[in-house]
Amino acid sequence: MDPASEKAWLPPGQVATRRFPLVGEGPPPPSDVDPARWRLAVEGLVRTPLVLSLEGLREMGPELGEADLHCVTGWSRRAVRFEGVRLGRLLEQAVPLAEARFVRLEAHSARGHDTTIPLEVARGDTWLVLAVDGSPLPIEHGGPVRTLTPGLYLYKSLKWLRRVELLAEDRLGYWERTAGYHNRADPWREERFVTGTVSPADVERLRTARRLGAFRREHLLGVDLRGWDPADRDLRDLRIRASDLRGARLDGVDLRGANLSSTDLRGASLRGADLRGADLEGADLRGADLSAADLRGAALTAVRLADPRSCVEGLRYAEGSGLLEDEEAFLGGAGLRPSP
Fold it and tell me: What does the pLDDT average to over 131-141?
């Protein structure tokens, strides 16, 4: 088969995987998602509010579905088979009022995760998922019940569902409020982030700052820092996401706990850089010099490394970092194995 045709299902900027990577919030306490105690409320602008148990949801006669999944961090998994109930069926029972235009989904989670989608999307393209690949949905992936809206990035599909609320007006969800994620989330348009949140004057101040203290409190999105050679080599906890750091000079820089997710670091020099605990999900490191860099504890889901120009001699990374297949094979081919 023509490789181009084979990957026609893959949106731009995505990498295919056969795995189901874990990203986002960790599971809530088991008591919050105990199947025997789990309840789902459907309320807000509806004529008939509902409260369903897990058994009640199953009695609706779950259907089999299949969909491609696309995560904002850059991985996609093809033709995932699941069992679930279409959200539209619950909405038919609840009967949305005429002024209802959006559906807010709320999770059991420590940080109160939620997201909002248009009512027509909830009716036509959203599922309540009970099982994946023939097995009950595991808690780490949102069990006992999560939502799935296949046409949008996965941050619009909520784990550990507890509440469905009908609204007249749109309301930004957790990731849109706190991390600058795009509210429409269309993977075919690469609507990952609301970028360009920093003025050109502030970018120039960042480039030349001798101390970066004030910038540590900011979410820096869509920043052009090509060729950056920071005077302050302490970049701990800095959040520069979905940005352009191609060719940056970051040798020996302390980037512990930094967030560089979805950032372009192609050709950057990170020799001996300390990236322990950093978030590099979806970052592009092809052609970068990572000699003796320490990536132990870094989140590496959908990171791109595999390139003959990449230098990885002495690089350290940990088991369970989230590396996808091609990157694991690339590092293995260079003689590298996970470090303790």
Answer: 94
